[in-house]
Amino acid sequence: MAYDPDEHYKRLAETYDGNWADRPQYVSWMADRIMSWLEPSPGDRIADIGSGTGLFLSRLMDIASPEAPILCVDPSQPMLDLLPEDPRLTPLCATAEQIASGEVSMPVPAVDAFVFKEAIHHVKDIPGTLSGLADRLNPGGRILIVSLPPRLRYPLFEAALDRFAEGQPEEDDLVKAMRDTGLKTDHTIEEFTVTIDRDHWLKLVRNQWMSVLSTFSQEEITAGVEEIRNRYPESPISYPDRFVFVRGIKE
Ligand SMILES: C[S@@+](CC[C@H](N)C(=O)[O-])C[C@H]1O[C@@H](n2cnc3c(N)ncnc32)[C@H](O)[C@@H]1O
């Protein structure tokens, strides 16, 4: 089945935030980690690229204001429609590539930070896009990428883990692309242990909550759920959620 990200997020938008509803610790952990990697100051102009519903923006919103709102960039209007109505958020329906190339203008010519939280894998030309975005940074500005590594340790069925790995950029490639922009680059892996009710997890898989699951037919999903059920007989299920953090700073 052909995978169409627009269709995937259109279908998923309504249930997206609910996927994490029973894992508030994870959401606040991630929001904290993003904050501490970005070290933003009040008044900084921040653009969240692939912002989706803005689920992880709570901490950044504390330092945003109606005068310096967070620019939430996403090509999926259904996801943007679910952003909280708040004068500290400005939605912009566009891709990372359109911002990087200047095809779509931002309300300000340059920003202090671009954040990509689990969105860089949707970008086709990562080096070219990062380079275009680096040109749109103020001095001292940062680009932060938060991305899942190709090999997940999620309790998924084997075919999904393999297909996910095929579509996900490697940490080394992200680091190289960031370095090649001329930004001072550092990186690490951060880990959070997820503990989730087994039935809830199976429901998420059935609902094809990750983009990669949308590439499987209903029959394949049903077989995959059975595979998970057999492999993980106990509830709750615990697994390490690992994230690559790559940061570039314009000196
Ligand atoms: C996994 S979601 C992450 C949303 C949000 N950052 C979060 O962590 O909750 C990926 C988002 O990237 C968006 N996206 C897809 N293609 C994109 C592109 N070329 N440029 C920017 N965002 C894109 C999708 O519409 C979706 O909202």
Question: Overview of this structure, please?
Answer:
The protein is α/β, with parallel strands linked by helices and 251 residues long. It has one domain: Vaccinia Virus protein VP39 (Rossmann fold), CATH 3.40.50.150. It is built from 10 helices and 7 strands. The chain has helices at 5-16, 24-38, 58-63, 77-80, 96-101, 126-134, 158-167, 171-180, 198-206, 218-231, and strands spanning 46-49, 70-73, 89-92, 111-117, 137-147, 184-196, 237-249. The chain has a 7-stranded mixed β-sheet, with helices on both faces. Helix 6 links the parallel strand 4 (111-117) and strand 5 (137-147). Helix 6 runs parallel beside helix 8 and helix 9 runs antiparallel to helix 10 (218-231). The radius of gyration is 18 Å and the shape is globular. 32% of the residues are buried. The structure holds S-adenosylmethionine. S-adenosylmethionine binds next to helix 1 and helix 5.
